[in-house]
Amino acid sequence: MGNLKYLDKKGTFTLNNPDLTSYMYFPLANEAGVMSSITPDLGGDIKLDQNTFLLEPVSSENLHNNKSVRNFWIYVEGKKAWSVAGRSAAQQAKLFDDDKEEVKLTAGIMWHQIERKSDDLGLKATVTSFVPETKDKVELTKIEITNITDSHIKFTPTTAIPLYGRSASNIRDHRHVTSLLHRTFTVKNGIEIFPTLTFDERGHNKNTVYYGALAKEETDGVMVSPISFCPVTEEFIGRGGNFENPYMVAKNQPLPYGIGEEIDGYETVAAMRFADAVISPGETKTYIIALGYGNSEEEIDKLGEKYLDTKAFDSFLEETKKYWQDKINVSYNSADSDFDNWMHWVNFQPMLRRIYGCSFLPHHDYGKGGRGWRDLWQDCLALLIMEPKQVRQMLIDNFGGVRFDGTNATIIGSKQGEFIADRNNIVRVWMDHGAWPYLTTSLYMQQTGDIEFLNEENTYFKDAQIGRGEHRDNLWSDGEGNMQLSEDDTPYRGTVLEHLLIQHLTSFYDVGEHNHIRLRGADWNDGLDMAEKRGESVAFTALYGGNLRDLAKDIMTLSKKTGKDTISLAKEIEVLLNADKTVYDSIDEKHKVLNAYCNAVGHKVSGEKVSVDCTKLCNVLNEMSSWIADHIRKTEWITNKEGNSWFNGYYDNSGNAVEGDFSSGVRMMLTGQVFAIMSGTATDEQVAKIVKSADDYLYDGAIGGYRLNTNFNEVKTDLGRMFGFAFGHKENGAVFSHMAVMYANALYRRGFAKEGYKVINTLYKHCHNYSVSCIYPGVPEYVNQRGQGMYHYLTGSASWLLLTVLNKMYGIKGELGNLKLQPKLLKEQFKDNKAGASCLFGGVNINVIYENPKGLDAGEYSVKEIYINNEKYGNGDVIAKEDINKLNKEVQITAVLG
């Protein structure tokens, strides 16, 4: 297995023998809707959505099982057939031999290139693939065949790409029957399919989508069309043949179809034959292939006219490379250039998540696209750093998914701010959902100084689910729409602040028998989904508590900024604010308060508003926050028989604490520690003890760092399905990147820089070690028991890692719109006593360089002087917002540490 090497500072990398890793895939996509995946042997698929797959849908196991790839065959006269994808039966048979073919991958952001050499034939093939950053729905591939001998070589070229052209559901739901819908026809430059109907969960409908595979060769500077075709799979492979040994290629038979023929009712292959070629030593022959979609035959044909040209291909490739690199406007310059390049891919991952959602890559074979509630808010974290202009309205629109009982819509539409009622009556409440919007809103306000954002208004979501998932509103009907109505039947509108308060106040009262917030259907860890009745999440109770304290600070800042001592809130919220604080200790009294509120807002709300004094409101929020922190410290701090201490994070459906000493061994979970640290619930002394316990029980450097939990040695059905997973996989004890990164974030927040760096550096070093992690650059969802990165690319951990490295490690962050420089870099991260990062802040591209002349370590230095474009700005670590606004679009900021 080869070593992965970077070729520049923009993430471009090379890797030898990637074909020796069976589960590798790479994303190719654009913002017009094309979502592709491609493997070293040109497998993978292409789709627009669940119902519009151009190539056959693949899951991870299909990557090595399928013989259907984007194949291109070379038949050398007097020798044999050779696949440039490596997918011939003969090549597969020699995969593990010492004389296997040389294969080299070179790839960058949204482009992929494979080089393959055949010493037997004296040929080298270079296959370059990408999806152009245009509005066209097309994937392009250029195949270059080079003679690496001293003699002339004559060969017959054939492209053979199996086309699917239907819904993913048809893989085993009428697979054959839906092939009968195919109307396949040959055109001058390729093969197109126009199915008559679509059969899927939408019903039987007339099809509107054309699928096409087009190709040309370059001859003497002129692009030339194929000479013959075979669109029928069973004809092309022959009786007893298959796509790794197709009859028409193996026997070098002429393809039997010409231009303008229609063949109906069969599985389709885009098999196209080009004229025989003779290439001299060192000469290269070029072929261009376009796989795309259109709403008419003319649209498909236009794709060919636009893209089937070598110069056009090269031009669009360079434009696409530049487009995506320009999008990634965050970069780093440290002593470890490999880390800087790895983070370049991490910075890119949130963009992939916005395109693919949580589906449509081989490991992400669940769901039908789209994102969940957490995704809306966590993806915005990266947007705030990289594309902040569009975030403000996006955040406002996202608040439209909040219900008046503090829960939220769980079906999210394709349009921004679109939320859909679940008419299947599947009640799901994730107890953590109310906490995430504040974290993102807080970051937005700190980055921009736009504290008045809290006064922006939006509607609330409404469906039949009321009482925080406990009851059904039988008065509600589809005809009322999906917005909460007032008594006058108009949609009620409330401020962002009101939305946030409802989310946090209702959660505060929604407690279980140990007076922590109920777990309900799950929290962030979706695997904790079997403790709905008696489960409690101490972990996220701590986070809600920290949010309440910080929200109180924001309200006072807003009051000072606007000069207003009161805020306007829905009248019904008074019941949540006016409870005497002695109620906090009583579970029954809390339930009474919550029930009174939920009953008042069950169907419609009054529409009345009241003025609430800001100081009194903040006192209530602070009292709630302090009560939560004190309660957790008093009741959940564990010291086990080995003398280690940490917080219990959960209660199961039997009402028992989950963590501590058990007959099966020590039980510890990372999540409870993360939010106790992040929220300030844990004291500094407790943080130090948590770190020791996590190092003793959760840390495993061989698999990338900190496991999500220890081995419970039990299929714990009174807590969650995660315990049915094998230990060390996914939520059950894997190194789960999201929580590991949040652990690092929490440690940096509390000044534990060395400990935070250990978390990130261990994860990075492991992922970067391709021979173990078996993934391309970037952070995966998790690392399994064997150290392999899993569910790559589409993970919320990328946003948190970007945020943690830039804001915490490099200390480049907003402070109510001011630029604050507060690095926590270790001395080993400086090269020649310098380190830095570039990003967008306040509309200005800033390049921050930290000078550490004394070689000090994190915790030993602070920013003493700041220079802007080599002119001294001042002492201290803050550049005022008004001064940022005066800067040019690009500036260099030098911060001297001492």
What does this structure look like?
The protein has 898 residues and is an alpha+beta fold. Among the domains are: 11-327, Beta-galactosidase, Chain A, domain 5 (Distorted Sandwich); 640-796, Alpha/alpha barrel (Glycosyltransferase), CATH 1.50.10; 810-897, Sandwich (Maltose phosphorylase, domain 3). Helix content is 29%, strand content 26%. The protein has 23 helices and 51 strands. The strands form 15 sheets. Strands 1, 2, 8, 9, 10, 11, 13, 14, 17, 18, 20 and 23 form a twelve-stranded antiparallel sheet that branches. Strands 6, 7, 12, 19, 21 and 22 form a six-stranded antiparallel sheet that branches. It starts with a strand and ends with a strand. This is Cellobiose phosphorylase. Residues 323-462, 622-811 form the Glycosyl hydrolase 94 catalytic domain. InterPro entries: 6-hairpin_glycosidase_sf (IPR008928), 6hp_glycosidase-like_sf (IPR012341), Gal_mutarotase_sf_dom (IPR011013), GH65_N (IPR037018), GH94_catalytic (IPR033432), GH94_Enzymes (IPR052047), Glyco_hydrolase_94_b-supersand (IPR010383). Pfam families: GH94_b-supersand (PF06165), Glyco_hydro_94 (PF17167).
Record field, number of beta strands: 51
Could you give the distance between the termini? 45 Å
Residues in helices, as a percent range: 25-40%
Q: Structural class, please?
A: alpha+beta
Rg estimate, integer Å = 30 Å
Per CATH, which architecture of the domain at 11-327? Distorted Sandwich
What's a quick, concise take on this entry?
With 898 residues, the protein is an alpha+beta fold. Helix content is 29%, strand content 26%. The strands form 15 sheets. Strands 1, 2, 8, 9, 10, 11, 13, 14, 17, 18, 20 and 23 form a twelve-stranded antiparallel beta sheet that branches.
